[in-house]
Amino acid sequence: MDRKIMKELIAWKDSAYRKPLILQGARQTGKTYTMLELGRKFYENVAYFNFESDPSLSKTFDENISPSYLIPILSRISKQTIIKEKTLIIFDEIQLCERALTSLKYFCEEAPEYHIIAAGSLLGVAVNRSQFSFPVGKVDIKTMYPLDFKEFLLALNELNLVELIQDCFNTNVPMPQVLHKDAMSLYRTYLVVGGMPEIVSKYVETKDFLLVRHLQDMILASYLNDMSKYNTNNEIKKTRQVYDNITVQLSRANTRFQYKLVKKGGRASEFENAIEWLNLSGIVNRIYRADKIMKPLENYKDIDAFKIYVSDVGLLCAKKNILAEDILYMSDELNDFKGGMTENYVCNQLTFNGYTSYYWESERSAEIDFVIQREGQIIPIEVKAADNVKAKSLKVYMEQNKPAYAIKITGKNFGFENNQKSIPLYAAFCI
C-alpha cells in the first residue's frame, strides 16, 4: 500500500542533517508497518523493539542510556548486528519508556551515524501528562495520518483517475461526466471506509462493508480503552463524554463546539482537559476561529471558539452507526448530518496535506468553513455537501477580505468563475 509519507522518510534517511525521528499519530494509522517497510526496502537490516509487547525492555534503559552502552545490548536483544548507516533501529510504543525517549538526545549528540525511528500512538498524551524529559531540538518529528482520498484511490488501483483529477484541478477543466460520476461514487465509499490502512486493505480485498464496520468498531473500542489506560481517573468519564458528543455537535447547523451540548450547564473548565487529551492523542482535530484575516492567522485565533472533527471520517460514520447504504446513496434521513460529515472529510484532507485550518465568522452570521494559508495567500474554502453552489457567506467574505481567489468544494464539476475555483468533493486532496 503506497503511503505518501514514505517519500518524507526516504528524504530523512538521506539527509546530512538527519536526527533521530519521532513518528507520531493515532493508533492504527500504519506507523509500525511503514517503519518496517522503510527498513525492508532501504536498509540492510532492521533492529525492532516494542516497549508494549516486551515491557522488560525498559530495564535496559534504566541502567545507562549512552549509545556506546546501548548498541551492543540492543544488538544482542534483537539478534541483529547493528551497523552504522545500514541498520534501521526502531523503538515502537516509546511512550511507555521515558528513558528510551531521553536516549534519543544522546544518539543525536554522540552517535548521529545510527538511524533511529521512534513511534508512539499516545506520545503527545504521555509527554503532556508525565512531564517526560523530551529531547527538544534533538529529534525530527513527523505525523502519520490515515490514508487520504488519493491514497485510497491508489489502493483501489485507480492511478489513471488520480492523475486525471489532479490535471483537472490544475487546469480548472471539467472532468468527463461519466468519470465525475464514478469519482463521486468512490468519494462516498471513502466516507464509509475511511483511511485506516488495515480497513482499507480488507475493503480492497473483500468489498465487504460489514467487515469494514466490524474493524472500525474494534478501533473505536481500543480508543475507549486508551482513554481509561492513559488518563487520570477523574478525566476518563469527561473524555468519553466529549468523544461521544462529537457526532451530536456535527449534526447541528452551527458546528462550533458547545460545552452545553456535552452536559447541561457544561463549562470549559470542566472539559478542556478532556478535549486536550483527545487532540494530543490524534483522535480528533481541533480548528479555531480566526478573528482577523491577516498573516499569520495563528496570531488571530480565538481560543474560546473552535470546532472538533474526528481524525478519520470512516470512524466518524461508524461511531454514529450509520448504515453504509445510507451514505453510499446519500439518504435524505442523513440531511442533518451531511454538512458536518462533509466538513469533517474536508478538514481531514487539509490536515493530511499539512495545513493548519481556521474558520471565519462575520458579525452578521456569515461563516466560512475553512481558511488556510496556501502558496503565500490566505484562501477561504466553502464546503457544500451536495450540488448546491450558492455561497452567500463566501460572497460576504470576498467583499470584506479581498482574497486572491476562493475555493468552493461541492458535488459539482471543476470550474473557475467570479474568482472562485470550484472543485468537486473528491478533489479536496489536491489542495
UniProtKB/TrEMBL annotation:
Report which superkingdom the organism of origin falls in: Bacteria
Q: What are the AAA domain coordinates in residue numbering?
A: 18-153
DUF4143 domain location, by residue?
225-385
Please give the InterPro entries that the UniProt record associates with this protein. AAA_14 (IPR041682), DUF4143 (IPR025420), P-loop_NTPase (IPR027417)
Which PANTHER family does the entry link to?
Answer: ATPASE (PTHR33295)
Question: What is the protein's name according to its record?
Answer: ATP-binding protein
